[in-house]
Write a structure and sequence with these properties.
The protein is built from two helices and 19 strands. The protein is mostly beta strands. The longest helix is centred in the C-terminal third of the chain and has 11 residues, at 233-243.
Length: 250
């Protein structure tokens, strides 16, 4: 199915958006309660034992430290199903797959996130996320597919090394002024292509995605940071700094 397009036949309520449209706990897009600002949440108390702490199932503000975070699109226990990441004060988790700036609320309100993905399918048109295509293997194939997506500005992919693994780094910025006419009112980049079929993107225009696409012992993984236009420059940089602490487990 090399670059053949597929039409999703599942209903919107079964396509769980991992970032911006549902929580890590498999909430359906239409079941999200309306978020309202809350008082500052106390830090989640990690389980006993030395770091890294397991982020799985943690909901709320994270105590500063090193965590073990899940990878979207990989089965638990499979190679590279988890990474380790250092989290400073002021960040959150909504189940174990993202480090979320959060602004003391959970999704659908987003203020920047860090996550790791195993990507199989690209969205040829980010405004039409129900149609997707096989990318093929390799770091360059994914980077090339991202540069060809309409409705966004993409930097030239540059060589990068993270935790000893080589790949390409690029930035993608949504240029669509209004996403209300898009499928699920979202700008989507890719699908995991696994049994859970997660889609990655955002529901707000003007978001910049910072992407490290790496070959990790033969597995293509993408570290993704989404930075929102109403964040401060300092918070933009801190999310990038968090991503660059990621270590891949053997």
């Amino acid at each position: 199915m090399n670059h053949a397009q597929f039409k999703l036949t599942i209903a919107a309520t079964t396509l769980a958006f991992a970032v911006s449209a549902c929580s890590d706990a498999d909430a359906e897009p239409d079941s999200q309660p309306e978020s309202t600002p809350t008082e500052t949440s106390p830090s989640v108390t990690p389980p006993p034992g030395s770091e890294p702490w397991d982020m799985s199932g943690l909901l709320g503000a994270l105590a500063p430290g090193s965590y073990r975070m899940g990878v979207w699109g990989t089965a638990d226990g499979a190679p590279h199903s988890h990474v380790q990441v250092d989290v400073p004060e002021g960040y959150y988790s909504n189940g174990g797959y993202v480090v979320d700036a959060g602004n003391n609320t959970f999704e659908p309100d987003q203020f920047g996130e860090v996550a790791v993905w195993q990507v199989e399918h690209i969205v040829p048109d980010p405004c039409n996320s129900v149609t997707f295509a096989d990318i093929g293997p390799g770091v360059r194939a994914l980077a090339r597919a991202l540069t060809r997506q309409p409705g966004q500005e993409t930097t030239n992919p540059q060589p990068v090394t993270l935790d000893g693994h080589e790949g390409l780094y690029l930035e993608v910025t949504s240029t669509l002024p209004d996403l209300s006419g898009c499928a699920y009112s979202s700008h989507m980049l890719w699908h995991t292509g696994d049994a859970g079929d997660r889609a990655y993107g955002q529901e707000r225009p003007g978001v910049t995605f910072h992407l490290w696409i790496l070959d990790v012992d033969g597995t293509r993984l993408a570290i993704a940071v989404d930075n929102h236009p109403d964040q401060t420059d300092a918070q933009h940089q801190e999310l990038i700094d968090i991503a660059e602490t990621i270590r891949f487990e053997p």
